[in-house]
Amino acid sequence: MVINGIHIDDTFAEAFPMKATRAIITAQNLEWAYHSARAMTGFATSVIACGCEAGIERELSPEETPDGRPGVAVLIFAMGGKGLAKQLETRAGQCVLTSPTSALFAGIEGGKPIPLGKNLRFFGDGFQMSKKIGGKRYWRIPVMDGEFLAEETTGMVDAVGGGNFLILAESQPQALAACEAAVAAMKEIPNVIMPFPGGVVRSGSKVGSKYKALNASTNDAFCPTLKGVTKTQLSPEIESVMEIVIDGLTKEDIDRAMRAGIEAVCQLGAGAGIRRISAGNYGGKLGPFHFHLREIMT
């Protein structure tokens, strides 16, 4: 398949099951909601070393939030329910409770309830109070700027992590420009995040390593400086490869995000130095979710 001069490889991205939740952070204004959300989703690019993968899903207008203030929705993904609950509670306590004027609400109705403000309330040292409104319990925790309001629980659902595609270009600036276009398009799709910095990974990995202590290592087949010393996947004119990783609440959400991203890259065309779109898979050994590029783009 060739779209606007860009070759779409006959391959697939391989993804795996995760658990996910959404939290809604509100504040006096959008700037402070972002301060809190960026702190909460920091150091959360990969479960390989971060414990979870997290990102800002989108801004919320006052009409969309429970307390009528500006807000931000964040998504957090982990490999299991216990790990997700721990990451959520730790990050909420250190990054949202601490952030001036913030409040914290559930972002997923249904699913299995996991603590949001349920345990954070103990920071109130006995002065905390609860109130039940519309069947939902909220905790009012006294803090030095006034009061931190947190909903007791949010929902945890099954999700999918590790959707991806690779952009192969003639130069590093061209690969990055294509990634930026893709990420901008993908941010319009709900229920997904691209957890790496700016949504882009320059250090894509393969499973395993020659070093026993590592369970992942550089994807040498796609490293341009290793063309002469490894079993390369790159033709001579390709000098830069970057990856976009996608986590989504469902397989269909990742399908839509991948299509939007690849379409944005293809609109740039081969004239922008983009030669191929490929994907990372491990022969079906990593996960049960397979995203075939050509099916997505048909």
Automatic annotation (TrEMBL):
It comes from the Bacteria. Its EC number is 2.3.1.101. One of its GO terms (cellular component) is cytoplasm. Residues 146-296 form the Formylmethanofuran: tetrahydromethanopterin formyltransferase Ftr C-terminal domain. It is found in: Cytoplasm. Pathway: One-carbon metabolism; formaldehyde degradation; formate from formaldehyde (H(4)MPT route): step 4/5. Its main location: cytoplasm. Pfam families: FTR, FTR_C. It is an enzyme of class 2 (transferase). It catalyses: N-formylmethanofuran + 5,6,7,8-tetrahydromethanopterin + H(+) = N(5)-formyl-5,6,7,8-tetrahydromethanopterin + methanofuran. Keywords: Acyltransferase, Cytoplasm, One-carbon metabolism, Transferase. InterPro entries: ForMFR_H4MPT_ForTrfase, ForMFR_H4MPT_ForTrfase_C, ForMFR_H4MPT_ForTrfase_fd-like, ForMFR_H4MPT_ForTrfase_N. Residues 1-143 form the Formylmethanofuran: tetrahydromethanopterin formyltransferase Ftr N-terminal domain. GO terms for biological process: formaldehyde catabolic process; one-carbon metabolic process. GO terms for molecular function: formylmethanofuran-tetrahydromethanopterin N-formyltransferase activity. Belongs to the FTR family. Homotetramer. Catalyzes the transfer of a formyl group from 5-formyl tetrahydromethanopterin (5-formyl-H(4)MPT) to methanofuran (MFR) to produce formylmethanofuran (formyl-MFR) and tetrahydromethanopterin (H(4)MPT). This is Formylmethanofuran--tetrahydromethanopterin formyltransferase.
